[in-house]
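Q: Convert this sequence to structure tokens.
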Amino acid sequence: MMDNYIQITIELKDNSLSDVLIAELTNCGFEGFEEQENLLNAFINEENFDDISFQKIISNHKLAFTKNIIAPKNWNEEWEKSFDPVIVEDFCSIRASFHKPIRTTKHEIVITPKMSFGTGHHATTYLMIKAIGTIDFKEKSVIDFGTGTGVLAILSELCGAKNVVAIDNDEWSIDNAEENIKANNRSKILLHKADSIEKENRADIVLANINKNIILQHFTSLKQHLANNGILILSGLLTSDYTDIESAANSLELEIISSSEKDGWISLILKH
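A:
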């Protein structure tokens, strides 16, 4: 049975505060956001809600909010209403089945717009897709750590990966990713519900679009699962996270070979 989600509606005096709040709430575990005039809706799995951390963020900004519990079915209905196609330059487009086909990009992915993180609307997913477009995936093995909707795993296979292991610790994400993989007729993606990468798995390319704390927690493991001369693509990071990630990468002898920025978020490409 799927978990309930908490919807927090925050009143904003200034819409420019929205990006800051999204960044802080993402690091607090929130997975989805909807921006409206003078309002920000933030969504999180009820089991993952840390009230103390949330209250600290709200108190620091002196904001008013309301809190509601929403069932998965209600979430899906709202998500579908607000879902628009995402186009990442001429490389990749992401749309729902109820949208018209997009012929202007090299790759097109069709997803069911549910709760799982990774529709491409958030800057970090956009940056990950853009980074993938700069790397040769042909006949490469891939690990997608924190797969969410499965978009990056699907794109990896579309780009020529010979096999993809997609991992997430959230049941909702695994179910949604499985649905999306089937909808895109992908056959080389193996889904795992887990908190970590299995020891025997090694890959030419590892993808991790999560957040700084989880990346730092799993950084050693991410490197250990890279093949020699492997590529690690990271996002879920704020521009202010760069120094901490760079320091940790240096200690693991991982070289940052490229970075990209969008709306205060960054992606990094590292080499083993």
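DSSP finds eight helices and 14 strands in the chain.
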